[in-house]
C-alpha cells in the first residue's frame, strides 16, 4: 500500500470509529425504546412452519387457481418493488446509470 493511501486511511480511522460507535448507541437506544427482543424458539418454529406451508401450498395447482385479481396485482407490485431496489443497487455498484466502466481490449495491447 502506498504511503498516500496509508495516510488517508489513518486520517479516516478516527471519524469512522466515532461514527460506528454513535450508530451503535443509537441502535441500542432504539432497541430498548421499542422493546425489541430476539425471537423466541417458539416464534422461530412458527415462522419455519409457515414458510414450509407456503412452499408446500405454492407447489399445489389448486392454490394458483384461487388467487384473486387483487392478490395477483399485489404480488406484481411487490416483484416490481424488489426489481427496482435491485436496479438501484446495480446503479450504485456500477457508479453509472448505464453499463460498466470497462477499458477496451485494444487499450491493453501495448502492454504485451
Automatic annotation (TrEMBL):
GO terms for biological process: proton motive force-driven ATP synthesis. The keyword Ion transport applies. It is found in: Mitochondrion membrane. Its main location: mitochondrion. The lineage of its organism: Eukaryota, Fungi, Fungi incertae sedis, Mucoromycota, Mortierellomycotina. GO terms for molecular function: proton transmembrane transporter activity. GO terms for cellular component: mitochondrial membrane; proton-transporting ATP synthase complex. Belongs to the ATPase g subunit family. This is Uncharacterized protein. InterPro entries: ATP_synth_F0_gsu_mt (IPR006808). The keyword Nucleotide-binding does not apply. Pfam families: ATP-synt_G. It comes from Linnemannia hyalina.
Amino acid at each position: 500500500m502506498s504511503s498516500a493511501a496509508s495516510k488517508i486511511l489513518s486520517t479516516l480511522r478516527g471519524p469512522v470509529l466515532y461514527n460506528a460507535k454513535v450508530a451503535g448507541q443509537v441502535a441500542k437506544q432504539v432497541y430498548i425504546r421499542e422493546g425489541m427482543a430476539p425471537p423466541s424458539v417458539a416464534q422461530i418454529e412458527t415462522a419455519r412452519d409457515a414458510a414450509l406451508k407456503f412452499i408446500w401450498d405454492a407447489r399445489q395447482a389448486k392454490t394458483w387457481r384461487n388467487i384473486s385479481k387483487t392478490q395477483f396485482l399485489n404480488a406484481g407490485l411487490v416483484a416490481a418493488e424488489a426489481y427496482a431496489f435491485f436496479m438501484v443497487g446495480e446503479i450504485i455498484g456500477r457508479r453509472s446509470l448505464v453499463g460498466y466502466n470497462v477499458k477496451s481490449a485494444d487499450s491493453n495491447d501495448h502492454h504485451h
